[in-house]
User: Fold this.
Amino acid sequence: MKSHRLINTLFRKHIARHGLTNSQCSQLLVLSKRREISQNTLGQVLFLEKSSVKRNMEKLTERGYFDKTAQPKIVITAAGLKKIDSVIPAWNAAMQEATNLLGDDGIAALDLVLIKLTS
Assistant:
């Protein structure tokens, strides 16, 4: 879908300078809220394929942001929390830009699509 590519590009513009992909940033955000999660649950929460979760999890682990020693749980590290704290302003800027572009009616339309896709 063209809309998906446009939103991804918008977020990539803000997030990439932090050395993360959109997917990696999303995984860090989820872990920063939950502190630990299974790979399967992380994929379900983010609607990602198992292979995408695993690939990004491995990269984030190599960078010291995740710890897999408590398998099957993935745990965010202090370095991961510090990284996501540094990315939050860029994430918020991307969210604000998307909100400004879409307007209230666009946000409502996306919410309706999400409800229909996940019901």
Notes: The first strand starts at residue 36 and ends at 38.
